Amino acid sequence: MKALVESLKATARVTDATDIRAAFAADPNRFSRFSTRLDDFLFDYSKCAVNDRILDGLDALAKAARVEDKRDAMFRGDIINITEERAVLHTALRNRANRPVLVDGKDVMPDVNAVLTAMGGFADGVRSGSLKGATGRKITDVVNIGIGGSDLGPVMATLALAPFHDGPRLHFVSNVDAAHIADTLKLLDPETSLFIVASKTFTTIETMTNAATARAFIADKLGEAAVGNHFAAVSTALDKVAAFGIDASRVFGFWDWVGGRYSIWSAIGLPLMIAIGKENFGRFLDGGHTIDEHFRSAPVRENIPMLLGLIGFYHRNVLGYPSRAILPYDQRLSRFPAYLQQLDMESNGKAVTLDSAPVEFATGPVVWGEPGTNGQHAFYQLLHQGTDIVPAEFMIAANGHEKELRHQHELLIANCLAQSEALMKGRTLAEAKAQLTAKGMDEAKADRIAPHRVFTGNRPSLTFVYDQLDPFALGRLIALYEHRVFVEGALFNINSFDQWGVELGKELATGLLPVVEGEESAEGHDSSTAGLVAALLKASR
Ligand SMILES: O=P(O)(O)OC[C@H]1O[C@](O)(CO)[C@@H](O)[C@@H]1O
């Protein structure tokens, strides 16, 4: 692998692959050669520094890393999450073909379908008003209490699918900061509120603390007996949910083979289903499923998640770019960058291989971003003229939902395309100077100002185009990025499905709580931590 990467570096140096601008000038067909489609879904990677030799090299890399074998092992239900000894089967949750999927010799599909049916019944009941609060009133507000994968997916997707939202209002409480739940409870009438406690493990301190606060809110206002009508839960730990006091008929299970950050397709999607209805939720699963079928069968040069992963690896390990920007030109995807942060960084922010050895490559990059056009007026300065190169990943719908405001959508499209064009083309010193002198600036001043107005160009970007942001398109987009993370993880030879890196901070927080509460001394902690505790205790009222 290392040798193949070195050879790719050499190829990138000696060919003119890295001069994207020149590659466009030399080849009028570059777009059609380096873009691919899945129905209405278009993936353009022509504005990346690739050519056929680079892509062949990446293909060889994928073969050497046995990416396709690893992919098949995932779909088959092999124990690929080796540190937790689990299969990885979020794909079974959207297996609309209903093909048997075996875990320990048992087909999981009947259980998957049974939970989906139960979710549908519950969602219908809440939406229609047949499932009421304890005082007989219809539920108007649903509050999801969860964090990480038990929050980000439903939050992101609910915002994304706002035009399809015809169920009760949704709220999301995740942070242990009391401000989050307090600000939410202020908006609610307890008689018409339903809380969904969403936690795979049902031990996460933030979620359990917020759930206890919500429980007290209902019990205080409506009496202890009302709690049952105002709570539901989503978890793999059904015994712990029962201990919390939520009736089994309002508990929706999933399985240890669904990672938290891959769980939007499971019962964790219940709030989304309540918002948009079970039919639309089904379309969302359909979208994910079409990408699974595509990922499993398309040849590398037509396989969008495979190409996306290979180009991601190329940017990180051949060209050495440390981050990637997710730039949806779709305001309703405003939380998509945050969602991808967890998906990508919790999956591939690792330093040990599957053989428990130090990794030989730079693993997952920093993932960040904001929707356009807002980002243009904030951080795009650095994207265009900063000293780091940040590959940009643009996404845009051909059609907005606001037909009557088509001109605004056209403006959005123009901005999206202009940004990728500007990143690629840039502006030379001569062009900058000519512009200034054309406006009447004298030569000496133009010489001084022009360097500030140079854009080096040759900055890579990818663009996704879809017809319209609907449940199907969103399902596709998420599944696509899930598989990209898989491909990159396979190339890094790491386990993308555990998250031990979040444990140490959790352990230390548990140890620090009695110190912060003033019940234990800070002795044994470093002087900075002890000093900060002392300052906070002194200032606390
Ligand atoms: O659903 P749970 O078990 O409450 O976990 C929430 C989140 O916490 C994490 O384990 C990280 O701390 C994530 O992987 C997960 O999505």
Could you explain how this protein is built, in words?
The mean pLDDT is 96. Helices cover 48% and strands 11% of the residues. The chain has three domains: 1-76 and 281-425 and 460-498, Rossmann fold (3-Layer(aba) Sandwich), CATH 3.40.50.10490; 93-276, 3-Layer(aba) Sandwich (Rossmann fold); 501-540, Phosphoglucose isomerase, C-terminal domain (Orthogonal Bundle). Helix 12 crosses helix 13. The protein contains 22 helices and 13 strands. The chain has a six-stranded mixed sheet with strand order 1-2-13-12-10-11, sandwiched between helices. Strands 6-5-7-8-9 form a five-stranded parallel sheet, sandwiched between helices. Strands 3-4 form a two-stranded antiparallel sheet. It has helices at 2-14, 20-26, 30-33, 52-64, 67-76, 109-128, 152-160, 178-185, 205-222, 227-230, 238-244, 270-276, 278-297, 304-318, 336-348, 380-385, 406-425, 429-438, 443-449, 471-492, 503-516, 527-539, and strands at 35-38, 41-44, 102-103, 106-107, 141-145, 169-173, 193-198, 231-235, 251-253, 323-329, 366-369, 392-397, 461-466. The protein has 541 residues and is α/β, with parallel strands linked by helices. The site of 6-O-phosphono-beta-D-fructofuranose has 14 residues, from loops.
How would you describe this structure in keywords?
541 residues; alpha/beta; Rossmann fold; 3 domains; 6-stranded mixed beta sheet; 5-stranded parallel beta sheet; globular; binds 6-O-phosphono-beta-D-fructofuranose
